[in-house]
Amino acid sequence: MLSQLEQLSFAVDGRYATDFELQFIDDYAQSFNLRLQTYQKLRAIESTVVQQAYDKLKSQHASFFQFAGNDLSQKWKQDTIRVLRYSAVAMLMNDTETLQERFLLWFQTIMRSFGVQRNCRLTYEVMQEVVKEHLTPSQANLFCPILELNRHSLGKED
Known about the structure:
Low-confidence stretches: none
Order of helices and strands: HHEEHHHH
Radius of gyration: 18 Å
Number of helices: 6
Mean pLDDT: 92
Strand content: under 5%
Largest sheet: 2 strands, antiparallel
Helix content: over 70%
């Protein structure tokens, strides 16, 4: 939404915006209540979702949280919570472009430097499964595409 507003301000420099150019604002207004409810639900279930994703990953991949002989469970949880929170804001604001530009590209560099893209792919794949257990279908339809963006961006190998 913020990115779209910024783009609109440049596009309409010195003129009125057309109805077509303003349509995204109407679309956002119509979806705002669902976005807000989804955001509030995610905030309330954050620790449950992260723990359930952790448990699934650990049971499916015994050495998932091991890296160079160290247990990175706590680091994984911290990073996963950080991504989940940024993702929730992106969903609330309907602004995946800002999420991509200001967070995911930076975080992607870090994940690549450690060579854990596979773990990222698995994390956000499982996260989508877990989230669908807790959100309504409408809420999941808003949020899961952002988790898929995370999976694709952070799990991408060159």
